[in-house]
Amino acid sequence: MRGVASATQAVDYPAPSVSGGTAPVTTSCNPAAGASFPLGSTRVSCATSDAQSRSASCSFNVTLTGLVLEAQRFEAIGDSLTEGENGRISFLDLANAYPTRLQAAFDATYPGQGLVVINRGVSGWPIERTVEELPADLKADRPEVVLVLSGYNNLFNGCGRDPVFILDCQDALHAVEIGVRDCIRKSRESPNVKYIFVSTLTPPGPVAPGAPKDRRISNEAIIEANVRVRAMVAAERAVLVDTYPAFVGHEAEYTDTDGLHLRPAGYQALADAFLAAIKATVPQTPLLSHR
After folding, report:
1. pLDDT for 36
2. Domain boundaries, the chain
3. What are the Cα distances from residue 279, in Å, to 51, 96, 109, 276?
4. In the chain, what are the helix, strand and coil shares in percent, each to the nearest 5?
5. What class is the 70-284 domain?
6. Over 90: is that where the pLDDT of 63 sits?
7. Res 291 pLDDT > 60
8. Which of 18-27, 160-169, 180-189 bottoms out in mean pLDDT, i.e. has the lowest?
9. Strand positions, DSSP E, the chain
C-alpha cells in the first residue's frame, strides 16, 4: 500500500514465484506490472502454465491511498488571462480557463476532498484594480491560497510593442512590480490565507493572418516585467510560479490568434504549472491518517 498524489500511479511488482513444472513455464498477470493503477484496491490475477499444459493461479491486491492536501479553498486573481478570454472574438472560454483546468486536476488528484478554485479574474482590469478589489474578495471567499497572474493590461496600454525605455512603458513596468507587491501584502492581511503563488507573465505569440485583433506586448517588456516579478516575489517571500519558460518554444501552440490570450493548451499549461507548485509547497498527508 502506498500514498500517491495523483489519480493513478504506475506500479511495478515482482513476478510471482513458480516452483515445479516442466519447462518452459510461462506466467502472466493482469493488470501487468508497470501498468497504471487507480486509487483504491485493485485485484491482480496471475496465471502460469507449463509444457504439459498444467496450470496454476494466484491473486493479490495493489492498494493505492490518496493524499490529503492541507488547503481547500483557492482564489485566482488577475485579468482576462485568469478569467479565460481567448483571442479570437473576445470570448470568455470559461471551460478552458486555467482556474477551471486547475479545478479539474484537483478533482482527479484529490477526489472527494472538496477542493474549490474560485475564479476572480476580470477582463480589462489593470493590476491596480485587482489590488483595490482584493480585500473584499478575500473577505467574501475566505481562501487559504491566493494565485496571482496580472499585469498584462498595464503592459499592453503602457508598452505595447514599443521599446521598454519609453516613459509610459517604464511607468507600466513599475505599476506591475508594485501591484504584485500589493497583491501579496493584501493577501497576507487575510487571516485565512496561508500560501500565495505568483506567476510570471507569458510570452507573446504570433498573430494569425486576418486576425481581428493584434494585442501583442513586446517580449522585451514581458521579460523586464518578469525580472521585476521574480525579484518582488523573492523579497516578499511568496511562491514563484515561473510559467514563462514553459511557454518558450510553444508560443504558436499555446497563444491564440491575437498574440496575447491563450488557447486551451496554453491555459492547461498554466494550470499544470500552478498545480506543480502547489504540490511542491502545500503539505500533503496520507488519506488514511484522516479517517
Report:
1. 87
2. 2-67, 70-284
3. 50, 21, 10, 5
4. 40, 25, 40
5. alpha beta
6. no
7. no
8. 18-27
9. 2-4, 8-10, 26-30, 36-38, 40-49, 55-69, 73-78, 116-121, 145-149, 195-199, 239-241, 284-286
